[in-house]
């Protein structure tokens, strides 16, 4: 058996370093582009977050104003209208006849029952 021959010319190590350098350069370029993309997305997310916070603040102010108005209305209640006349069936339909009037005999109210 013959011992393995060494390649003549430039040593193999220099090409490996070039390949490694080019691979690392590509990785660096991708990482830099990814970072720039993430920073851009972060800025746009910050703008969206500020806009949403402004909207939340506006809605909270509207709720507080509505609660204050409701509190004022509770302190100064609106006049209540009386319920419609009941027809004996649990509802007051305007198209139904009114209940018959009760007339008591005046003679009955004068006599009291004594035990």
Task: Summarize this structure briefly.
The chain is mostly helical.
Written description of the protein model:
There is one protein chain. The protein has 115 residues and is mainly alpha-helical. It has a domain at 13-74. Helices cover 60% and strands 0% of the residues. The protein is built from two helices and no strands. It has helices at residues 12-75, 106-110. It is rod-shaped. Keywords: Coiled coil. Residues 35-69 form a coiled coil. Residues 78-115 are annotated as: Disordered.
Shape: rod-shaped
Considering DSSP H and I runs of 4 or more, what fraction of the residues is helical? 55-70%
Taking all Cα atoms into account, the compactness measure Rg is 47 Å
Query: Biggest sheet, open or closed, and with what strands and sense?
Result: none
Run of helices and strands:
HH
What is the average per-residue confidence, as pLDDT, rounded to a whole number?
A: 77
User: How many angstroms does the end-to-end distance come to?
Assistant: 144 Å
How many helix segments?
Answer: 2
Global structural class: mainly alpha
| Residue runs with pLDDT of under 50 for 5 or more positions | none
β-sheet strand percentage = under 5%
> How many extended strands?
0
């Amino acid at each position: 058996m013959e011992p393995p021959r060494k390649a003549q010319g430039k040593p193999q190590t220099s090409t490996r370093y070039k390949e490694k350098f080019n691979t690392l350069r590509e990785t660096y370029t991708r990482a830099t582009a990814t970072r720039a993309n993430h920073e851009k997305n972060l800025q746009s997310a910050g703008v969206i977050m500020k806009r949403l916070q402004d909207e939340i603040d506006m809605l909270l102010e509207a709720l507080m104003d509505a609660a204050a108005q409701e509190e004022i209305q509770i302190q100064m209640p609106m006049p209540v209208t009386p319920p419609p006349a009941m027809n004996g069936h649990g509802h007051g339909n305007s198209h139904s006849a009114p209940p018959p009037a009760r007339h008591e005999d005046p003679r009955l109210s004068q006599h009291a029952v004594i035990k």
